[in-house]
Amino acid sequence: MKLHSQNKEALLTGRPLPTLLLFALPIILGNIFQQLYNIVDAMVVGKYLGDLPLAGISIASPIMDILYALLLGASIGIGVLVGQLCGAEDWERLKKVHATALAGGGLVTLALSAAGLLAARSILVAQGNDPAVVAHAMSYLVIILSCLLFNYLYNYFAAVLRAWGNSQTPFVVLLVSSVLHALLDLLLCGVLDLGIRGVACSTVFCQIVSTLWLGLYTAKHCEPLRLKRGELRIDRREAGAILGFAWAAALQQAVVMVGRFLIQGMLTPLGTHSVTGYNMSMRVEQFLFCFSQGISAAMVVGISLSKGRKDDARVRAFYYSALRSEFILWVVLGAVLYLLAPRFIGLFSSHEEVIAAGTAYARTMALPYLFAFLGEAIQGFFRGIGRLRLTMIASLSQIVLRVILSSLLIPLWGIPGICAAVTAGWVLLVLIEGSYSLKVAKRAAGN
Q1: Where are the domains of the chain?
Q2: Consecutive sets of 10 residues in the chain, 447 residues long: mean pLDDT of each?
Q3: Cβ(444)–Cβ(304) under 8 Å?
Q4: Which residues, at least 6 apart from 227, have a Cβ–Cβ distance to it below 8 Å?
Q5: What residues contact residue 263 under an 8 Å CB cut-off, 6+ apart?
Q6: Longest dimension (CA), the chain
């Protein structure tokens, strides 16, 4: 049985660099429109509802992002396994993995949703946030966390389709969903005056639409993933295999968000405007990382398919192509960010202190993004070959260093202290994995 998408054959036989970039383009565009969910939320809240609700979304974002990161990471890990099985054309096992990932992942997501609803208010209060801001944050989080299952299912189906060799369909779904999300935000907040709850309802509705679309598409176009009645069950053996791929990737994604959350708590003494400015600069940063992460995600698919086919030389070719692409991205995006940082932050708030704080972070980080972009390629390489535990350990190490340095430097330097701490973490990650990745790549090519 052959795969539905011609992209799969291109990933296995085409020239690595143009194939990588062509496959990455829909992923990059999809990542951009994914970020538009949060960016549009912040812009609508900031312009229509004011600074207090904006601060509410600002302090709610890390909690939401941690849970989203766990689900995204798990989907990335499962996608690596799916890619390897697709490359090996092991359709029988693929169906069992698919059913187990849907049933088991759904149950785990429901548990995370319940835990988030129970703990969110206590966490926000413990950070020392203003009670009025916490009230706005909880109005938003209750709706978002109650429907967390659809976030997992969307990410899972998107990861599976990419591993299948189809990066276009997830992009089309995100494009339509993002436009719908923007229109609903304006309707629910600007016209119907539903406040911050309207923003949350818009987000959830679009996640449901995206999940149904991708789920139905997968069932129709990917025959080995078409489940009959009674086949949606957990296979214990495959559950262990899925856990081996998913847990490290999920933890890796989450520890980055946990570190950001802890750092946000350290910023509280600097004032609400500094916290908001920092979080708005994080939104800009996440937007820029859409490009870097898109290249990395495409490389993961190419490498996992090639590894399934036991084409080790092609594994190395994809990795080196990704490294070159990430460097060029940094040159272009770093310059754009430095020149236009105040305008980017000004999209979310017109308050001078918010813009100043966000601009200070963004401009300082334009140069160190080199290490972040290279780190994306390095980590993508290890994900693609299935070394997810190594990427988790490296991420955990750099986050620990980042948090420790932030606790020491923020009281002394404020926002520049965060910049120094984050840069040190990225440099450590590149040092830990960079040279080792080149050795592994050379061995993979038989050198």
Answers
A1: 39-260, 271-447
A2: 55 84 89 72 69 76 84 87 83 88 92 92 83 86 93 93 88 88 82 80 92 92 82 85 81 78 78 81 87 92 86 88 95 95 86 88 94 94 87 88 92 90 92 84 59
A3: no
A4: 95, 98, 99, 102, 219
A5: 402, 403, 406, 410, 418, 421
A6: 65
For residue 132, count other CB atoms closer than 10 A to its CB: 12
**pLDDT computed for residue 272 by the predictor:** 77
What Å distances lie between residue 339 and 232, 284, 354, 373, CA to CA?
A: 52, 13, 18, 19
Q: Which two tokens stand for residue 194?
A: 């539903």
User: Which residue in the block uniquely carries the two structure tokens 């987000």?
Assistant: 203
For residue 292, give the nearest of 40, 41, 35, 87 by alpha carbon: 35
For residue 147, count other CB atoms closer than 10 A to its CB.
Answer: 17
Residue with token string 């050198």: 447
Instruction: Tell the residue number behind the tokens 């639409």, with chain if given.
Output: 209
Whether pTM > 0.85 for this model: the answer is: no
Q: What are phi and psi of 404, to 5 degrees?
A: -60, -50
Tokens 């926000």 sit on residue: 124
- Whole-Å CA distances, 55 to 60, 61, 275, 276, 416: 8, 10, 8, 6, 21
Amino acid in position 274: S
Q: How distant is the alpha carbon of residue 202 from its chain centre?
A: 20
Structure tokens at 69: 């990161």
412 token code pair: 């002394």
Q: How many residues would you count in the chain?
A: 447
